[in-house]
Amino acid sequence: MARKKIALVGSGNIGGTLAHLIGLKELGDVVLFDIAEGIPQGKGLDIAESTPIEGCDAAYAGANDYSAIAGADVVIVTAGVPRKPGMSRDDLIGINAKVMASVGKGIKENCPDAFVICITNPLDAMVWVLREVSGLPHNKVVGMAGVLDSARFRYFLSEEFNVSVKDVTAFVLGGHGDTMVPLTRYSTVAGIPLPDLVKMGWTTQEKLDQIVQRTRDGGAEVVALLKTGSAFYAPAAAAVQMAEAYLKDQRRLLPCAAWVEGQYGLDGIYVGVPVIIGEGGVEKVVEIELSESEKAEFNNSVESVRGLIAKSKELMPQD
Ligand code: A3D
């Protein structure tokens, strides 16, 4: 059986980490693409030289021409600019909407059958642009945010409870921004929901509220520490989990920025919801019951995504 081909559009901090993880997991051969000459080639060669040590079979190539991504099974997009301290994700829209338009064209012309995972911010709006320009089916274009936001929530909870991260599950819905909705009712330690753990005295409501807020600010916390860019290890791990679910037809239930039409009363928008990812891409949008206050928070988040999509429409080059 031929190895799968995974194209990474953007070979910066996340792109390089993705390339490394994909090789370690032997998910397929990797093509790194970037507009910066030498970066994708250099990172590809460097990682390829680690494969004899790791004992993993994966080929690496670097390119500055879109023809290199031809026939890719999966494309992971990180092209564009990240935040600097003091910036919100939404401040990136002017540059990144134009970048997504060029990436969408490259995908359309070279690998229209790929499963595309977008990471570039502001996430939900950038997935929308990518899908619009590439013309791929909605179920094959998805955004990575919920897996990362949920992982941050899980990590903070595991610290608070002093239990293994393996036993903590968590759900974060909505747009990937300050309005994201961490759902405490659907988050558990080995199946025990967080509100029950408060009743059991494992934590207090006040501490839980602080953890929810820290989750919302999780990206900014790393940006403030790094000063030169944004998080990349955890975002790359999250996207690799989504790519693996598709390539191995795992049917994982993961929170992703997916196209929602009908579910949750929405009439066609990209926003963070639980979905099943398998060989068909996004095979199902899972509609969970929300309380009145959760609904209000989710709708608030949807409105903010709508605003960003409208702005992206104005910024997209017309041709
Ligand atoms: P960075 O290390 O700067 O890498 C971006 C790369 O994109 C650079 O190598 C650029 O040369 C390249 N690039 C710029 N324009 C183009 C273009 N037109 N075509 C191809 N390549 C281009 O950034 P990063 O890897 O740290 O972050 C990448 C993106 O991911 C940013 O927009 C971040 O905001 C975003 N991000 C999202 C999350 C989510 O959870 C959604 C988390 C962290 C970062």
Automatic annotation (TrEMBL):
One of its GO terms (molecular function) is L-malate dehydrogenase (NAD+) activity. It is an enzyme of class 1 (oxidoreductase). It holds the Pfam family Ldh_1_N. The keyword Oxidoreductase applies. Catalyzes the reversible oxidation of malate to oxaloacetate. Belongs to the LDH/MDH superfamily. MDH type 3 family. This is Malate dehydrogenase. It comes from Insolitispirillum peregrinum.
